[in-house]
Predict the 3D structure of the following.
Amino acid sequence: MNQIVEQYLEDQRKIFRRIEEENRSKRLLELGLSTKEYLEDQEFTEDYQFFDDDLQKWYRYIPIDVTDAEYAEICKYAPKEVLPEKPLKKPKENGVKSAIQIVAYVIFAIGFIAGVIMSQELSAGIGVAYGTCAVVLGILMLGFAEIIKLLDKISITKSI
């Protein structure tokens, strides 16, 4: 067989096997033949869309391992189509949180620059006061942005 044709067929077989495996995993998940896999760090990711209130961890469902014979038997008796209980929501970045973070960083920068200028123009005490006010206000703004992020995460968790 021509080497180019042989390479093409091998590539197509790999693609077919990958698609077949994805469909198999999806079908097992639809039928509820899955286990929970927990995320070690606490940050939300699109892969781990569920939250366990008891363990305080994000998790996802992964299909259980089945042999080809078991899968064929499952398909033989399983309904043709299983509708999910609730569609999964894809969280999007909270625009308010991002805007507040940007404002906080701008406050840091402007406060630092104003503090340096005031130190040179008037006195060091006024410059330090400007800088300190900017740092405090910036930290408060970042804290507020973090609270919004956490509330958004809770909202996502409760809606699933």
